[in-house]
TrEMBL record:
GO terms for biological process: DNA biosynthetic process. It comes from the Eukaryota. The lineage of its organism: Eukaryota, Metazoa, Ecdysozoa, Arthropoda, Crustacea. This is DNA-directed DNA polymerase. It comes from Argulus foliaceus. InterPro entries: DNA/RNA_pol_sf (IPR043502). PANTHER family: DNA POLYMERASE (PTHR33568), DNA-DIRECTED DNA POLYMERASE (PTHR33568:SF3).
């Protein structure tokens, strides 16, 4: 098969030039959210993946390296078997 290389880092200057980007001081909205379709800007949020996800995709940085777990708490606590539930 062929190997593909996609450089996402170089997309940053292009999107800054060609796309709308929020400017100014952030407006913190902590409750009474509008539907996401009506929002524009950046969002800081937590993500809870399903327990049966076969290939976790969200990275977690740790002193031992970069991990792709289902549970960040267990990586930080260096727990081998996660007993957390949704």
């Amino acid at each position: 098969g062929k190997i593909k290389y996609i450089d996402f880092t170089s997309l940053y200057p292009w999107t800054s030039k060609c796309c709308e980007c929020p400017v100014g001081h952030p407006l913190l909205i902590l409750k009474d959210f509008k539907p996401l379709e009506h929002c524009f800007g950046f969002m800081k949020c937590g993500v809870l993946p399903p327990n049966d996800l076969f290939h976790p995709v969200l990275p977690v940085g740790h002193s031992e390296g970069l991990f792709f777990p289902l549970c960040r708490t267990c990586v930080e606590g260096e727990v081998e078997a996660c007993d957390h539930s949704q």
